[in-house]
């Protein structure tokens, strides 16, 4: 944005982005970050050793179809709110692989389930509480799946569509000298804690929540030291047609 842009109004709006949020043709630019992977309905049960690649084809298909419906609704309402020629930039977790069971989609959830199950085996968490714990459903699309949905709706032309990878130990530059060996694991655990803590507390209570994420951080640190663990981000820039 340069000095010749003129007066501008910026708005961060509360509400579901799967609904109408703005008056018709009132926007010149829309940006959504790290949100569109969450589906409008459905839950994922974190039971036993949670892993996406053990899901049945019917379950995977149901998540994909829900993603298609949600993305279609999102595009429809944002197209109504944008003026002709208006731009929209979206980024969200996705995957490079066309395989929906790829580890790229959910590895951090698998490791959280591992930490919780260790605590169940030690009697620190009640097994029934663990078996009833679930998280809001999400879907991490591939580039081709995003492209198909954007072009299917016909509201926008695609200016740019790309995927990028961020190593788990690169996304935060803070450093704790006292935890040098496993510091990267604690960073990722801290990030995930912001997402899932309130849901976990309602199941396991707040007295052991620190221990959950301490163990989670140690597991993550171990995996980072042995594997190339990455967040996969999809970024798309589109322009409203007509």
UniProtKB/TrEMBL annotation:
Query: What are the protein's GO molecular function terms?
Result: metal ion binding; methyltransferase activity
Q: Which UniProt keywords apply?
A: Magnesium, Metal-binding, Methyltransferase, Transferase
Annotated signal sequence range: none
- Asked if the Swiss-Prot or TrEMBL record annotates the protein with the keyword Transferase, the reply is yes
Q: Which Gene3D superfamilies match?
A: Methyltransferase, alpha-helical capping domain, Vaccinia Virus protein VP39
GO BP of this protein: methylation
Q: Name one Pfam family in it.
A: Methyltransf_7
- UniProt name for this protein: Uncharacterized protein
């Amino acid at each position: 944005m340069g000095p010749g842009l003129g007066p501008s109004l910026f708005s961060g709006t509360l509400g579901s982005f799967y609904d109408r949020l703005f008056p018709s043709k009132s926007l010149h630019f829309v940006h959504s970050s790290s949100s569109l992977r969450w589906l409008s309905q459905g839950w994922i049960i974190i039971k036993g050793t949670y892993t996406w690649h053990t899901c049945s084809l019917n379950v995977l298909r149901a998540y994909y179809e829900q993603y298609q419906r949600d993305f279609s609704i999102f595009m429809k309402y944002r197209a109504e709110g944008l003026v002709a020629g208006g731009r929209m930039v979206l980024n969200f977790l996705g995957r490079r692989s066309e395989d929906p069971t790829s580890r790229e989609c959910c590895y951090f959830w698998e490791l959280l389930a591992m930490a919780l199950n260790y605590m169940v085996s030690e009697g620190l968490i009640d097994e029934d509480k663990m078996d009833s714990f679930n998280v809001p459903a999400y879907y991490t699309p591939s580039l081709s799946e995003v492209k198909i949905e954007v072009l299917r709706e016909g509201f926008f032309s695609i200016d740019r569509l790309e995927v990028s990878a961020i190593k788990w130990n690169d996304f935060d530059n803070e450093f704790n000298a006292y935890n040098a060996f496993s510091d990267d694991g604690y960073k990722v655990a801290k990030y995930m804690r912001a997402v899932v803590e309130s849901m976990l507390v309602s199941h396991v209570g707040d007295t052991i929540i620190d221990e959950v994420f301490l163990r989670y951080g140690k597991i993550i640190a171990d995996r980072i030291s042995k594997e190339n663990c990455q967040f996969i981000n999809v970024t798309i820039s589109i322009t409203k047609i007509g």
